[in-house]
Amino acid sequence: MHEEIDELVSWLQQSKDFYLNEKVAVRNIEKAGKGIVLLDGKIRRNEIVISVPSTHQINFNSVLYHISMFNRNIDVPSVIYSDDEQNETLYTDDDPRVKAYDIFTTESLLELSSFQLLSLYIIAEWKLLPKWSNDTIDSYWTPFFNVWPKINDLKSIPAIWQNSNLSKYKTLLSYLTSDSENHCKRLTSLISHDWIIMKPIIEQWLRLFDIQYNIDEIYEDYLHIYFIINSRCLYAEIQLKKDDVASKLTLVPYVDFINHSTEIDSFCYPKIEYTHANITGAGQFVIRGGPYTYETPNEQILFNYGPHSNDFLLNEYGFTLPENNWNYLDVSFILKDFISTDTDVTDYLKTNDYWGEYTINLDGFNYRAIVALSLFITKDYKRVGKLILGYISEDYFLNKIKDITLDILNNLLMEFQQKMDSLIMLDIYVETDPCFYNLLNIYKGYVDLLTCIKNK
Ligand SMILES: C[S@@+](CC[C@H](N)C(=O)[O-])C[C@H]1O[C@@H](n2cnc3c(N)ncnc32)[C@H](O)[C@@H]1O
């Protein structure tokens, strides 16, 4: 690992705008792959930890820029490789990318989303270029590619169980929580939608070059790359993609070694700074210290990826946390199931926009669930109307819905305990396998949450 990290740093140091605080370094972290730790000294609020120029980030702009080096017909003002720069020859005329990227037009590239363009480009530069060139040409990005996780490191992600033909974990799909199942379906539909767009382009490349590689193998590469992008991208304004929120992303070497903490506004924070002139209009990506002062050697430098539950973390990033205050349970399905036996109550809730989105988190049942349960139990439309308008507090109802909420909590606890027992009984169960560990962690998180509310 050290050699690859050293190569990455040497490559980044080719830019005078790269900065790495000498008090930090990359280390292996148990159950989290690699991470960044403090070596010695202190990191205080606003101190720069890492700063990476746009020349070393992969995003919609930088990919257009690099493709335009090989295809001089690509014309996107302020982003493309200029004639002045052409004097520095960075490739030879027989570079296969001249032929490969010639299939693009400006319009065809601009139509792609960031995920589609980045996936295609990374497939080409990382997976296909070695084959197109008989291992004689290295991509500019090779030091970055070399530190990315292997597909095995991403094996906990349910959408990989679902979509990879090689996954050994398909059995686990029926053990997903309903929240994870829905999340996995959403991602699967994004993955297939993008593949439909990308596949004809890749097939064209396969026809152009005679290589020992087929579309099914590239599909597996695509899944790998899709989740590398998904789990490592950072938010960044992309001028060319103003109206497409999902495309506002950038991949930033070294910064993407930072692991997640559940705490918001405590540890480091990212900021894009536009102080340097740069080729592609994207800014300098800077990580600075937050309110918390780092002073313990080997302590991890962390930041918060967002207020995410374990279900979310597993599906998007392939990990879970043993303790996560952002866990919650969607109980809409359960509540709707029995409330719908009363059509008057159901109609009232629908008319007043209180039908569904019932959840439980550390504070208990959410307001919507309390309203729905209160009406179902008391049929007191007048008082529930006042509750909805905020004229009275929910205290009046809490005692009245106590039995039903307790029943719901007990039933859920029983259901999750059974799920965990049956997971452990599976033939393929291995305690140390992250797929099992993570799935069980979600259920354990639910059990902890429900127990905590029950005991309140
Ligand atoms: C942006 S990368 C962070 C660097 C990564 N650990 C690596 O080895 O390159 C995000 C990935 O790191 C891992 N990760 C991040 N935070 C974690 C945490 N708190 N616990 C376990 N794994 C974590 C997950 O695999 C996630 O997909």
From TrEMBL:
Q: Could you provide one GO biological process annotation from this protein's UniProt record?
A: methylation
Q: List the InterPro entries.
A: SET_dom (IPR001214), SET_dom_sf (IPR046341), SET_MeTrfase (IPR016852), SETD3_SETD6_MTase (IPR050600)
Keyword field contains Metal-binding: no
Q: Start and end of every SET domain? A: 22-306
The molecular function terms in GO held by this entry are: protein-lysine N-methyltransferase activity
Q: Does the keyword Signal apply?
A: no
Top-rank taxon of the source lineage equals Eukaryota
Coiled-coil annotated spans:
none
**Cellular component GO terms, alphabetical:** ribosome
Q: Which key words are in the record?
A: Methyltransferase, Ribonucleoprotein, Ribosomal protein, S-adenosyl-L-methionine, Transferase
| Annotated Gene3D superfamilies | set domain protein methyltransferase, domain 1
Q: Which protein is depicted?
A: Similar to Saccharomyces cerevisiae YDR198C RKM2 Ribosomal protein lysine methyltransferase, responsible for trimethylation of the lysine residue at position 3 of Rpl12Ap and Rpl12Bp
Q: Which organism is it from?
A: Maudiozyma barnettii
